[in-house]
Amino acid sequence: MREYLLTLCVTAAVTYLLTGPVRKFAIAAGAMPEIRARDVHREPTPRLGGIAMFGGLCAGLLVASQLANIGGVFTLSDEPRALLAGAGIIWLLGVLDDKWGVDALVKLGGQMIAAGVMVWQGLTILWLPIPTVGMVALTPLQGTLLTVALVVVTINAVNFVDGLDGLASGMVCIAAAAFFMYAYRIWYGYGIEAASPATLFAAVLMGMCLGFLPHNMHPARIFMGDSGSMLIGLVLAAGAVSITGQVDPDALRLFDGSEKAAVHAMVPVYIPLLLPLTIIAVPMADLVLAIVRRTWNGQSPFAADRGHLHHRLLEIGHSHSRAVLIMYFWSALIAFGAVAFSVRSSSLVIVLAIMLLSAIGLVILLLPRFTPRVPTWAQRIVPPRYRHKPELAETSEAEQARNAAARAAGLNGSTAAGERHRFTAPRKAGSRR
User: Fold this and answer.
1) Could you give the C-alpha distances from 253 to 53, 256, 258, 302, 422, in angstroms and in order?
2) In Å, how far are 100, 209, 229 from 28, measured between CA atoms?
């Protein structure tokens, strides 16, 4: 655990220290696009934050390779090299898009190439535990297609949610923390070395997000851009692919029995791994809704709009910071709830706790829709927006009425004076003649 914490801290420190110089470079390079109609910020903000995050990724992997315990991952597995190769391709594609703009189909092709390179390097899904069936070995073609699809969908889900300051990096950090807890339990609790690459990827991903967050919180001084959002989406997908398709469920040996019964009983354990999109369920829901909405309106699924979940939170009355915190809350509830359910699937306490937190989240989500009548004794406790002061309202209305009457009187006075001036002027002119 100490080596993972050291790797996390080094990654976060390098990312944090590089973000300042990268911001100056982005401003000098002109990577500050004009504000678009769908944007929430009001001032041009530099992008290319993904450069600092990629530097943190390289530094974290370099430090991890020199450590005693987790350094063996680099000699026993090709997955770190596969991750670095795919991350380099997706990062370069994102930098080009942040500076000059890249067509959506070209980006999709680049994402598929990056995923294909990872598959070629050995980071692929080999088998899947299927309920009521057992372990299903995938053919090379099936494993390649499934891996590429999982990587591309995860990248775009993270990219779609990157619309508010600190939103994408915070949500991915929460997902990586939940994923780290599960992967570390598989590796350390059961002694399965095949789970160590996924544990390392999650630790590095947390460091990348934590190092970038101080620069990206509202008001953001720099955006990660596509170079950052696609990068962290790929790293998250790589960890999911690693532990889903490389760890054999039979190695856990939870109980004796047939392979079919074992896989069926372990389905709750593999929920966050077989379906890693449950860890990023909020970005995935946003992605699905965006595709349906744009297709229904006759637009391209890649066309940008202001219909994302974070835009809707702002429309119903939430502030920028509160909207981000609400998205954090739901991401944490789903991610850690899935991990907790995978550990104790039969625990009623976990189910009740998730239901209670969901109810609290719904109340907070709909809070701007409420118009509560706060009693007089609680006026100083609640925020100013919920204070009801009828006397001030009446006073302001009275002042408005007096001002209107004064303006009307002044207008009438000036009109009368004008009339007098118009009728007296000829007499004065006649007397001069």
Assistant:
1) 38, 7, 11, 45, 106
2) 14, 24, 22
What is the helix (H) or strand (E) element at residue 134, kind and residue range? strand 134-137
DSSP label at residue 78? S
Cα 29 from chain centroid (whole Å) = 26
Which amino acid, residue 315? E
Q: Are 150 and 222 in contact (CB under 8 A)?
A: no
What's the rounded Cα separation, in Å, for the pair 82 and 150?
16
Measured distance CA(241)–CA(123) in Å, rounded: 7
Which pair of tokens denotes residue 363? Answer: 């109340």
**Which amino acid, residue 235?**
V
What would the pLDDT profile of 128-140 be if each residue is shown by its tens digit?
766 556 667 788 8
Check: CB of residue 90 under 8 Å from CB of residue 236: no
**pTM of this prediction exceeds 0.70:** yes
State the sign of the Cα–Cα–Cα–Cα dihedral 176, 270, 343, 350: positive
| Dihedral sign for Cα atoms in the order 16, 21, 23, 29 | negative
Q: Which residues contact 29 (CB under 8 A, 6 or more apart)?
A: 48, 99
CA dist., res. 348 & res. 404, Å (int):
65
The helix (H) or strand (E) run that includes residue 109 is helix 104-120
Give the containing element (helix H, strand E) for 77: none
* Cβ neighbours, 10 Å, residue 359: 10
The torsion angle over the Cα atoms of residues 291, 296, 302 and 306, rounded to 10 degrees, is: -90
The DSSP symbol for 90 reads: H
Handedness of CA 407, 408, 411, 412 (dihedral sign): negative
Q: φ and ψ at 129, to 5 degrees?
A: -80, 120
Element (H, E) at 288: helix 281-296
- Residue % of the chain over a pLDDT of 90: 27
Output the six-digit token pair for 89: 């391709």
Tens of pLDDT, residue by residue over 378-389, are: 667 766 655 655
Q: Whole-angstrom distance between the N-terminal and C-terminal Cα of the chain?
A: 108
Mention every residue, 6+ apart, whose C-beta is less than 8 A from residue 390. Answer: none
d(CA 339, CA 180): 10
DSSP 170-227: HHHHHHHHHHHHHHHIIIIIH--GGGHHHHHHHHHHHHHHHHHHHHHSSSPS---HHH
The secondary structure element, H or E, covering residue 130 is strand 127-130
Distance CA 96, CA 192 (A): 40
- Tokens 């991401």, located at residue: 331
- Which residue has tokens 């294909």? 116
